[in-house]
UniProtKB/TrEMBL annotation:
Name of the protein this chain belongs to: Polymerase beta nucleotidyltransferase domain-containing protein
Record lineage: unclassified sequences, metagenomes, ecological metagenomes
Domain Polymerase beta nucleotidyltransferase: from-to ranges: 18-109
CDD domains: NT_KNTase_like
Organism name: marine sediment metagenome
Coiled-coil regions listed: none
PANTHER family reported in the protein's UniProt record: NUCLEOTIDYLTRANSFERASE
Length: 144
């Protein structure tokens, strides 16, 4: 069993400068750094988590995300990097990325538009989820 070394903390500004050309060339609209790198909770099992938003018309997002992940690993000479597509994630995941993450690539207009859309959807959904939970709790209390 191999023991992972503690990952060094990468400055988000460094990542922004280093990878903006690659993100732009890859057809990415937005990229976020999130997880332990942002929270400062870096330990032996930490990795670098990057979430990207592809153009809606982009084909083969998974394949392109894996290729991007490989290119970032090469440039950083780091093994523990995960790149995921925001296009294929749950609303809850996307909300947490924009809430806790740092946008390291993209135009301000695109970022504001995307984050506003996710926040509006999340707030609508969270209201319905709370209503459901209250109704469920009432039904359980009624049965007792």
């Amino acid at each position: 069993m191999s023991v992972r070394k503690k990952l060094k903390r990468y400055d988000w500004q460094f990542l922004r400068e280093k990878f903006s050309p690659l993100f732009k060339k890859s057809g990415i609209i937005l990229a976020y750094l999130f997880g332990s790198q942002v929270k400062g909770e870096i330990g032996p099992m930490s990795d670098i988590d990057i979430a990207v938003l592809w153009n809606k018309d982009e084909k083969e997002k998974l394949k392109k995300s894996l290729l991007l992940q490989s290119r970032i690993k090469e440039r950083l000479r780091a093994e523990y990097i995960e790149v995921g597509s925001l296009n294929d994630q749950t609303l809850s995941f996307c909300y947490n990325v924009i809430k806790d993450g740092i946008c390291i690539f993209g135009k301000e207009k695109d970022r504001v538009e995307y984050e506003t859309s996710i926040l509006n959807e999340y707030l609508d959904f969270s209201y319905l989820a709370e209503e459901y939970n209250r109704a469920f709790s009432r039904a359980i209390r009624k049965e007792k």
